[in-house]
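Dear support,

Our group has been running a series of protein-ligand predictions, and this particular one with zinc ion is the one our PI (initials K.S.) wants archived with full inputs and outputs. We had some confusion internally about which version of the output was final, so please treat the block below as the authoritative record. The input we submitted was:
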Amino acid sequence: MGKSDPIIYTLEQALDKGKCPVCCCLATATTRSLANLLYEFVNDPTTRDHLRASGGFCREHSWALQQMGDPLAHSIIYADLIDGFCVKLQENMKESRSGPAFLAEKEEPCPVCLDEAETEKRYLDGLLKAIHTSAFQEKYRKLGFLCRPHFQAVYSQTRDGKVRSFLTEVQLEELSRLSAELKEFIRKSDYRYAGELPGTERDAWIRAVRSWVGPNDLKTN
Ligand SMILES: [Zn+2]
Ligand SMILES: [Zn+2]
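Confirmed final output from the archive:
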């Protein structure tokens, strides 16, 4: 199924994980690009120049990178960023400018965010392409479900009425199931039913957050 197109193949594989396939593929791609970046930052001074221009990574990706370990790479990256910032602070002490350089300077966007946006677009396009194949569509009907941001993104990216209703049907089915589980959790929280054993609804609240905003880290695999 879709083996000729690696994007479609990866999406198809991700359906088995029971989570938003776009989020899953994105997490794998971002983890890979973070690992590559760590390697490049240590070995390539031009990459470090780019990083200085962006003022490092955004908060989310700074911590994702930190979680990957590599104290030496981090020491090199942050010594560089901190020294660059110190130079600007010292310049500011010497010259009495109207506005300090370290505040006024417009920073480039986080390089991982830029990378991620491109990858996300590739997977959203891939998903729309894949849905046109009957094998993928069949599997998606059984296992597919997108987080709300990716559902909105995919939906607005197509004008095809059939694709839109197919996506909506699958989404509605899953969301209704999730909502029922949340209500079951609420019901069992009542002291009158406290004796009943917990079922699949016990972690529905976590799945609800994930389905609403997407995952909070790269451990989506
Ligand atoms: Zn998603
Ligand atoms: Zn970022």
